[in-house]
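Allow me, if you will, to draw on your knowledge of protein folds for a short while. I have a record of one protein: its chain in single-letter code and its fold written as discrete structure tokens. I should value your view on which stretches of the chain appear to form regular backbone elements. Thank you for your consideration; the sequence and its tokens are set out here:
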Amino acid sequence: MLAGALAVSAYSQSIEYVGSYQLTNSFEVMVDWPLAYVCQHLAFPNFVILDVSNPEDIEMVGLLNHSHPTQDFDIKGDYAFLANDWDGLQIVDISYPADPHYVGGIDFGDRAYAVFVKGDIAYVADGYAGLFLIDVSDVTNPTIISSYSDNFSASGIVVRGDVAYMTDHSTLLQTIDVSDPFNPTGLDSYCGQGYARRGIALYSHYAFISAWAYGMHIVDITDPASITPVAVQPTPGNCFSLYCAYDRAYVSNYDAGIQVYDISDPMNPSLMGYYQTPGNARGIVADEEYIYVADEASLQLLRLTTTGTDDLDRELPLEFGISRNYPNPFNASTTIEFELTAPTHIDLSVYNINGQKLESLRHGSMVAGKHSVVWNAQNVSSGIYFARLEASGISKSLKIQLMK
């Protein structure tokens, strides 16, 4: 059954202002602490790099101008991949943040709305032209591998494993098999009410989709070939974008600010806090300490604060480290728990038995306390792996066993 009524958390929480940086028309934001990357729509500069290590005194590090508006972007390593509207995919070298510069690009003939990079492939949602798979192994010469279209207007894209999850303006969600990059194949679709913006986030076995006036839709994607809607969460204003992490959905609602929902039970999201931003809230991301909002005329840094007795009674961990993962052994996914005794910058990654890094699960600034993160290992073979937590020169590891 689809959930409709707004549930409220058992303990009250609110959101407070921390800092901001004035911009012209900010549209999307990504954070790789201590840097925040912001693209601007129909404004110059199109791409801005900010130092947010001191939220009360944010500084501009670098900027970039381009003739067309940047709709979306993704960052992998030393490069930013920009969905630049009619200019298609543009690739920017950000290895030296003070001097970002273009190194390559490719046009597709329609409007590039969103991009997601996985390995050597950039997946671009390109409006009525559909989905494009681009080989970016040579960033100076990106080339088209294939495309997929089914009479829709592609607006958002996320890829997990061998499946691309794409929103479009009429069909809220399309699932596409991309195991063979030369032959992407449609699997299933969800045609709920609403006008899908680019907002889509995957969390555990669910997809969360922004549907403008029809709020946040939640879809079970356990089987990508047979997706099932489980809830529709009404939101104030127009649901523009969202980000999911830490059992929370961070939602931007354009003219109605932002909301944070507890999604530990995806069938019954509960409101944790809200904040009316000064502009129109668009892109949104979060780490465990701050919420970052591309709020039209500024980048807003906010913090979710707890006032309820449940959290006042919670004690801080006495020791830094990884405590356990469950289930263990596991099949497909496992939850890794770890503790921080003080606020710090961390990296939690998974390594194979030969010491090769497979995936970074969490990287950035985090508050003290107990935390958990899900490792989805659907595309990893059975065997012994290690989760390694690093912070302030200290490293702790946990052996985990995958059995398929």
Remarks:
- DSSP finds one helix and 35 strands in the chain.
- Confidence is low (pLDDT under 50) at residues 1-12, 307-314.
- Residues 227 and 291 are 30 Å apart (CA to CA).
